[in-house]
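Sample entry (105 residues):
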Amino acid sequence: MPALRCKWRGTTFHFVTEGIYTALERAREAAKGRDVRVGGGVATIRQYLEARLVDRIHLVVSPVVLGSGENLLAGLNLRELGFERIEHASTPAALHVVFEKRAQR
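Predicted structure, serialized as C-alpha cells:
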C-alpha cells in the first residue's frame, strides 16, 4: 500500500498507517543517518514515548485555553523513561522545554 505523500514548504511528509515501528523504519531510511522527528497528535507521540523510541523532546506550551483536549503526559513518568530537562526558555507567547534521554549507565 503506497503511503500518502504531501509537500509543504519544501518538506515531504509521508503518512504511514501500518504502525509506529513501520513509520520509524521508513523515516530512518529516508533520513539516511540524519535525525528523525516524530509529528502527529497526542496519541501518536504517546505511542512513541511508551515504546521508548524517543531520545529528545522539545515541548512548547502556549498560554491559550482551548478546552479539554488530550493530555500528552498523563500516566507517563518522564524520569522513569530516562529523561531529564536540558533546556528551557520562556517568552510571553510560549514556554519551551527540552528533555533528553540520559545516557545508559
